[in-house]
Amino acid sequence: MAVTRNALKKWEKVRAFALGLPGAAEEFPWGESVAKVNKKVFVFLGVDDGSYPLGVTVKLKDEAAHAHALTFPGAEPAGYGLGRAGWVRVPLEEQGAPAAELLCDWVEESYRAIAPKRLTAQLDAR
């Protein structure tokens, strides 16, 4: 299955945004890209090689944001029990997938849920 250019562009924007957050680093556990802060994952970026549908998984503690994320086509609570902790997987290749800006808002919320206060303070100072 070929990755759509639109989905890939969104994914690249979200990845760049995530890695631009204070203290963020990219790692590749399980062969997929994740962005971590303080050694904890705040966004699962998956793979961009077309072997698996493009999507992002974020932690949304805010109930309204969480509920909103689940309204998008194909969105679902994340697997491996992560869904119970507020993690949502949002596919990017579905018709009607969220815009990059909204995805970045969710990545920031996920980051804030996990990052230490000194780093969120740096983000607020920007």
From TrEMBL:
So which domain of life are we looking at? Bacteria
Q: Name one GO molecular function term.
A: DNA binding
**Which Pfam families does this chain map to?**
YjbR (PF04237)
InterPro entries recorded = YjbR-like_sf, YjbR/MT2646/Rv2570-like
**Protein keywords:** DNA-binding
Q: What is this protein called?
A: MmcQ/YjbR family DNA-binding protein
Taxonomic placement: Bacteria, Bacillati, Actinomycetota, Actinomycetes, Kitasatosporales
